């Protein structure tokens, strides 16, 4: 593997994704806002850089996996941002869940330097990232997509091409996350309904996943919701709130009411107000239980 790749953002998702790229033989330059997250990668030959700009080779590929719009904008266009260095034929592979309008703005900013923005947000939690089993929702310029395809293969089990508009990958990701978040709310209500009426949460979950809901989403989240184990966050609740806000904003911009998203938004806001932002997103189910008169405040 000849290409040196920049990797920015070594959180719950970024770290295992970067590990997959090292496994595939890429040389990595990594950056994380808080230093010290890269120790394990450095032992395997990655180089830790002090700024986003330093992670980039002119004309190279840089991957971002960051919390939100503000983080992505800072590392791209802020002081010591990488956009100014990426240069002609450089590629920004943008894998965070961010807004479609930021994607369009960054694509424009990169275009001014002759570089390309590819949207590549992912479906799958950190365990899927560690196993190279993410699904990647890709959009942007065709030639750039071709160049990154070996990287995508190292990190994912499948890529869905959503065309050339750099916003479309992010729109598809928000649509998928709306489905996931609304399903978690319904699932939590379903298990609590069963529990209130004398059927155990685990028994109900197994009944559903063994019959009409035999799909990865229901197995993965069913396990967490039935056990009510929310303290090891694969996906932090605060990031779920960020996603539902992006979903509502994108819906409003396209003149689309999303009543189910409003409900989930309130549920997540309440959870955040109660100090549950660092729990797993499925901890929204605590609110469902509390409303049903079950368990603690
Ligand atoms: N976790 C999942 O299951 C999952 C699944 C699919 C997609 N996603 C999406 O993937 C992205 C990353 O998620 P994650 O779970 O890895 O989040 P995370 O563990 O909270 O990591 C967030 C990363 O963003 C960095 N960051 C935050 N604010 C920053 C700022 N202002 N400037 C620079 N860096 C900043 C953090 O750096 P520090 O270490 O300095 O805080 C960290 O590297 C999010 O967009 C999320 O919605 C997550």
UniProtKB/TrEMBL annotation:
InterPro entries: 3-OH-isobutyrate_DH-rel_CS (IPR002204), 6-PGluconate_DH-like_C_sf (IPR008927), 6PGD_dom2 (IPR013328), 6PGDH_NADP-bd (IPR006115), HIBADH-like_NADP-bd (IPR029154), HIBADH-related (IPR015815), HIBADH-related_NP60_sf (IPR051265), NAD(P)-bd_dom_sf (IPR036291). Gene3D superfamilies: N-(1-d-carboxylethyl)-l-norvaline Dehydrogenase, domain 2, NAD(P)-binding Rossmann-like Domain. PANTHER family: CYTOKINE-LIKE NUCLEAR FACTOR N-PAC, OXIDOREDUCTASE GLYR1-RELATED. This is NAD(P)-dependent oxidoreductase. The keyword Oxidoreductase applies. Residues 4-157 form the 6-phosphogluconate dehydrogenase NADP-binding domain. Keywords: NAD, Oxidoreductase. Residues 168-284 form the 3-hydroxyisobutyrate dehydrogenase-like NAD-binding domain. Signal peptide: none annotated. The lineage of its organism: Bacteria, Pseudomonadati, Pseudomonadota, Gammaproteobacteria, Candidatus Competibacteraceae. It comes from Candidatus Competibacter phosphatis. It holds the Pfam family NAD_binding_2. It comes from the Bacteria. The keyword NAD applies.
């Amino acid at each position: 593997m000849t290409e040196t790749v920049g990797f920015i953002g070594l959180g719950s998702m970024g770290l295992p994704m970067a590990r997959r790229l090292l496994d595939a033989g890429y040389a990595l330059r990594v950056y994380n806002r808080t230093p010290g997250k890269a120790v394990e990668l450095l032992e395997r030959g990655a180089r830790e850089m002090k700024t986003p700009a330093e992670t980039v080779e002119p004309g190279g590929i840089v991957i971002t996996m960051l919390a939100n719009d503000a983080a992505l904008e800072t590392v791209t266009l802020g002081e010591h941002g990488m956009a100014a260095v990426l240069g002609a034929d450089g590629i920004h592979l943008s894998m965070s869940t961010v807004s479609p309008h930021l994607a369009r703005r960054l694509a424009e900013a990169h275009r001014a330097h002759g570089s390309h923005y590819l949207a590549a947000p992912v479906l799958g939690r950190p365990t899927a990232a560690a196993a190279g089993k993410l699904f990647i929702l890709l959009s942007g310029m065709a030639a750039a997509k071709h160049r990154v395809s070996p990287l995508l293969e190292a990190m994912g089990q499948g890529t869905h091409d959503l065309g050339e508009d750099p916003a479309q990958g992010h729109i598809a990701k928000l649509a998928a996350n709306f489905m996931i978040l609304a399903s978690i709310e319904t699932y939590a209500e379903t298990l609590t309904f069963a529990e209130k009426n004398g059927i155990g949460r685990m028994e109900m979950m197994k009944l559903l996943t063994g019959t009409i809901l035999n799909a990865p989403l229901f197995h993965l989240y069913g396990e967490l919701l039935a056990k009510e184990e929310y303290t090891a966050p694969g996906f932090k609740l605060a990031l779920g709130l960020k996603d539902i806000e992006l979903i509502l904003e994108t819906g409003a911009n396209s003149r689309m009411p999303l009543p189910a998203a409003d409900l989930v938004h309130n549920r997540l806001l309440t959870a955040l107000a109660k100090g549950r932002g660092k729990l797993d997103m499925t901890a929204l189910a605590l609110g469902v239980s509390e409303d049903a008169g079950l368990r603690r405040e």
